[in-house]
Amino acid sequence: MSRFLVVDDEPADLALLEGIIRKMGHDVLTASNASDALQIVRDQAPDVVILDILLPDENGLEVFSQMRSLRPRMPIVFVTASSSSNVAIEAMQRGALDYLTKPVHVPKARQAIERALEVVRMSNEPVRLDPPPVAVMEGDAIIGRSAAMQEVYKSIGLVASQDVNVLIRGESGTGKELVARAIYQFSKRSEAPFLAVNCAAIPEPLLESELFGHEKGAFTGADRRRVGKFEQCNKGTLFLDEIGDMPLVLQGKILRVLQDGTFQRVGGNQTIQTDVRVIAATHRDLESMVELGQFREDLLYRLNGFTITLPPLRERGEDLELLIEYFRRQANKDLGKQVQGLSPEAMEILRSYRWPGNVRELQNVIRQAVLKTNGPVIIPEFLPNHIVRRVRRENEDPRQSTDGHAAADSLEQLIESKLRSGSEQVYDEVISVVEEQLVEHVLAYTGGDKLTAIRKLGVNPMAFRSMAALKLFDLGTVPVAQVPATNKSGNSSGEDDGFPSAEKGDAPTPAGATPTERPSQSPAVQSTCDPCAIVDGERSDGERDESERGGTSSAEPPPLIRPGMTMEEIEKEAIRRALLQTQGKRTAAAQLLGISVRTLQRKLKEYDLNL
Fold it and tell me: What's the rounded Cα separation, in Å, for the pair 231 and 197?
């Protein structure tokens, strides 16, 4: 919980902002004039200030300057009438975080508040290097006593006080942001702003504006001038995360800033001077990208004033147990639990796992395990299923596994094993294994957040050729109770929201397919009908009669996605199953599929699905 100070002489605006902040779960102090506001900053040290520019006793810019002298790191958000926006921009050039215009728009206010809290976290919360794990400490920590981590600590100590650019390398989840914050906090610029931009998370058209700002009218939607991060961060430190994902066009503009400290806003012709230390981070091989023409060689040299390489968790040996203990104690504190440790079996599973998501994945796993644990000890049943399955599968016989999961330490080994097995479906089998491993790793990285995982993958899971799509859609077997009852003709007996429930007959044959190529019924369909075998695209008479009498069979239902299916067939089956699972509700089905209702309606029409 953070403490805010809201300064405004308009009671209605003051009450609105106070209400927004309290609903977000934070404490609020208020003042209606400059003198009271400055006294509160001196005595109670708020974390964030929201400051009206027009105050009855003093100009907002003067108040801003005095507040910054009292607390240099404290984020300040201005509130201004539209006519005084130039004054607000001047304040931002001096180091203010953002400004809101009156009348205050609630969503924009919440966004500004969240940004301020993120700046507080990154700038003020200390980053400790390998603290003793006997107690949970405030702030964040870089844990590790291995030889590789000792080199990281030495590097931070060497470069922090030197005003040079730093490039941090390492796989995703190794702690690059923590290292950047540690460099900042031990640097000579520690009293100036520290801001961060994730170059992979911001769409390309918006990234340039985020970094350099824009003038009013520079593009559609640019209804006011905006100050970018390089301008806001003058005299401070800017952390450019995932620099390898930055478009080539922007790389040239970044190079210019690093060379002479100047840039222009988007749509502007004024040259702006700035003094910013850049810390960049990436998980990519920038040298290979240079060879492929995807990254500028001269920018790489400029960024690479000093390099710190973070080791992956699988190469840090004894650090794993230190991190487990630290995260266990953190989770106990955050969740109000009293978990004392891990069973030997659970610890052995964690030691055997390769941790593709590194420290971030480990933190998510321990937190989930603490949350699930009922007693004092974490046992294997409380660990994520995909970790337990993978470790046990690899322990069986990693050299002779026929499904490719355990044997595929490399793509070459996987392909070779499929060729040796005499398979005539090598393409489908390899793609299936790769997709499943990819989805498992991404889900582990995101802590099980499926929407974030889909965004990370950057592809519609409907295009997958394997069962991996089910892990993202949650479209496994639909419980019988969720599927509308059918009459003898196969049509549902009712409708929901004006949308007929799905038919229970065989799936229609795709265009160009022969009867024997007709996709099998989905498992959802066969949970209410007879999950029968398909012979030449038709059921046997006995099976059809049994189905119509409501009988069932113990045969395993076919998977939703099978090797060889076209994307159209996959989409049709996914849509059918989603509608069955949601009892024909379009909105719920669209959410389950991760698409909009409009897209779902278009697909129904495109595929002529009369469900």
Answer: 13
Distance CA 330, CA 353 (A): 22
Q: How far apart are CA 407 and CA 429, in angstroms?
A: 14
Question: Could you tell me the pTM of the whole model?
Answer: 0.56
DSSP secondary structure code for residue 517 in this structure: G
CA dist 67 and 35 (Å) reads 11
> Edge-to-edge, what's the strand order for the sheet holding 98-101?
27-31, 3-7, 48-52, 76-80, 98-101
Residue length, the chain?
611
Q: If 0-12 CB within 10 Å is exposed, 13-18 middle and 19+ buried, where does residue 368 land?
A: middle
pLDDT of residue 195: 92
Distance CA(33)–CA(492), nearest Å, equals: 67
CA distance 54 to 84: 9
To the nearest whole percent, how much of the chain has pLDDT over 90?
A: 34
582: left (phi over 0), alpha (psi -120 to 50) or beta: alpha
Angle, nearest 10°, between helix axes 85-94 and 60-70? 20
Whole-angstrom distance, CA of residue 305 vs CA of residue 79: 39
Contact 254, 299 (CB under 8 A): yes
Q: What's the pLDDT band for 224 if we cut at 50, 70, 90? A: confident
How many Å from the N-terminal Cα to the C-terminal Cα in the chain? 50
Q: Exposed, middle or buried, 306 (CB in 10 Å: 0-12/13-18/19+)?
A: middle
For strands 237-241 and 194-198, give the pairing: parallel
Q: Residue 34 in contact with residue 63, Cβ under 8 Å? A: yes
Contact indicator for 268, 218 with CB cutoff of 8 Å: yes
Q: How far apart are CA 165 and CA 579, in angstroms?
A: 53
Q: List, for residues 179-196, the tens digit of each pLDDT value.
A: 999 999 889 998 888 999
402 vs 421: CA distance, rounded Å: 8
DSSP H/E element including 393: helix 385-396
| Whole-angstrom distance, CA of residue 141 vs CA of residue 130 | 7
Mean pLDDT of 313-317: 91
pLDDT tens readout for residues 412-456: 667 777 777 777 778 877 887 788 778 877 877 776 777 778 878
Residue 460: closest CA among 440, 483, 435: 435
**Cβ(423)–Cβ(386) under 8 Å?**
no
Closest C-alpha among 348, 155, 285, 163 to residue 144: 155
User: How far apart (Å, rounded) are the C-alpha atoms in residues 162 and 187?
Assistant: 7
- Tokens 């690093």: give the residue: 258
CA distances from 428 to 212, 417, 424 (A): 46, 14, 9
Q: What confidence score (pLDDT) does residue 365 get?
A: 94
| Helix, strand or coil, per DSSP, at residue 38 | helix
Task: Answer yes or no: is pLDDT of 410 > 70.
Answer: no
Report the pLDDT value the prediction gives residue 564, as an integer from 0 to 100. Answer: 54
Neighbours of 253 (CB within 10 A): 17
